[in-house]
């Protein structure tokens, strides 16, 4: 992690402050030729309202903030849920609001001690790098904190995989892809579930096995394999986070009589299966409060892991267009459904 006083010129970052000061820095010229900062933002003006592109005050970095000249931003499932579910979605209750968490660009100013940003290797483009930030934080908050799956710290050079094993459901989702890579880097053998069209892609990540989620016998097959594999079963990460997938994970955990489930759902499961602990990953927006994770993952592992390619910028970006006017188009595209891809807008 670079010193805040000497920030990296190219960075991938996760935005933690959903403020209303804009995200897209541009430069224009006065009549005398001097440079004048100009800023625009894609706003959601009211609950379940439209996305509107308009001027925003040029921001100054405050304490624990980073000012980034964005060249690419990514769209996540929570973005379309904020737009369409409004106050029924637990992460937003104030308008107007600038949605979005993932950005890649050039650091302009930085006043932080701990950061959710990392230098981008020269060979990695902005549109590729922007696929990672929120997925890294979400996956890490499920895999490592005390009381969750409690994996060992990941190594940027890899580790042997004999001591532990786990299940990742939804391994071709953006969080699932990163969770697989982090778990493997932590020395865990990983069994996964994904859609049939993505089985080959997930196997190429280095997992022990991947099962088709539409296979009616997949639970039986998963349980048999996990029982045969050496090592301690630590639990399951449900990267889809709906009731059906969590119950499927619970069936595996109950059969192995050990382990717990972490789920991407931001709300606790109403009626969890008896005998299974289900833990929602609902605190990713507060990840900066968890220095154990920010230091272990963002400061130590990610910069070197990107260089050694133990962590890769996956899935492939689906570039919707260039300019903030394409944000709404990207939200609609993601709402329709995307598998093994990340919706990205260039700026």
Automatic annotation (TrEMBL):
In this chain, composition skew of type Polar residues spans 13-37
The record places domain Enoyl reductase (ER) at 54-345
Q: Which SUPFAM superfamilies match?
A: GroES-like, NAD(P)-binding Rossmann-fold domains
- Tell me which family the UniProt entry assigns to this protein: Belongs to the zinc-containing alcohol dehydrogenase family.
Q: What is this protein called?
A: Zinc binding dehydrogenase
Which keywords, in A-to-Z order, does the entry hold?
Answer: Oxidoreductase
Instruction: Cite the GO molecular-function annotations of the record.
Output: oxidoreductase activity, acting on NAD(P)H
Q: Where are the transmembrane segments?
A: none
Show the ranges annotated as biased composition (Pro residues): 1-10
Region feature (Disordered): 1-38
| CDD domains, alphabetized | enoyl_reductase_like (cd08249)
Keyword Oxidoreductase assigned to the entry: answer is yes
The answer to whether the entry has keyword Oxidoreductase is: yes
Return the Pfam families for the record.
ADH_N (PF08240), ADH_zinc_N (PF00107)
Which residues lie in coiled coils? Answer: none
């Amino acid at each position: 992690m670079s010193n805040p006083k000497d920030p990296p010129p190219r960075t991938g970052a996760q935005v933690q402050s959903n403020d209303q000061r804009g995200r897209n820095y541009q430069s224009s010229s006065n009549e005398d030729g001097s440079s004048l900062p100009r800023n625009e933002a894609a706003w959601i003006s009211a609950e379940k309202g439209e996305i509107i592109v308009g001027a925003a005050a040029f921001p100054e970095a405050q304490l624990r903030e980073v000012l980034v000249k964005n060249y690419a931003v990514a769209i996540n499932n929570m973005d379309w849920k904020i737009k369409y579910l409004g106050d029924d979605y637990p992460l937003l209750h104030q308008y107007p609001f600038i949605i979005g968490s993932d950005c890649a660009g050039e650091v302009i100013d930085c006043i932080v001690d701990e950061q959710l940003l990392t230098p981008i290797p020269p060979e990695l483009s902005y549109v590729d790098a922007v696929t990672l930030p929120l997925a890294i934080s979400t996956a890490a908050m499920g895999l490592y904190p005390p009381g969750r799956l409690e994996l060992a710290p990941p190594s940027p050079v890899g580790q042997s995989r004999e001591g532990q094993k786990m299940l990742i459901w939804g391994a071709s989702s953006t969080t699932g892809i990163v969770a697989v890579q982090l778990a493997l880097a932590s020395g865990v053998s990983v069994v996964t579930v994904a859609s049939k069209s993505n089985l080959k892609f997930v196997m190429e990540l280095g997992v022990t096995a991947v099962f088709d989620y539409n296979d009616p016998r997949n639970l039986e097959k998963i349980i048999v394999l996990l029982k045969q594999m050496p090592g301690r079963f630590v639990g399951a990460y449900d990267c889809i986070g709906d009731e059906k997938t969590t119950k499927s994970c619970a069936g595996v955990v109950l059969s192995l009589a050990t382990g717990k489930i972490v789920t991407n759902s931001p709300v606790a499961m109403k009626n969890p299966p008896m005998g299974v602990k289900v833990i929602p990953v609902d605190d990713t927006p507060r990840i900066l409060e968890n220095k154990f994770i920010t230091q272990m993952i963002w400061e130590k592992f990610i910069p070197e892991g990107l260089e050694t390619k133990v962590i890769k910028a996956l899935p492939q970006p689906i570039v919707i267009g260039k300019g903030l006017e394409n944000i709404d188009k990207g939200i609609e595209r993601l709402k329709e459904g995307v598998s093994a891809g990340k919706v990205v807008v260039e700026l």
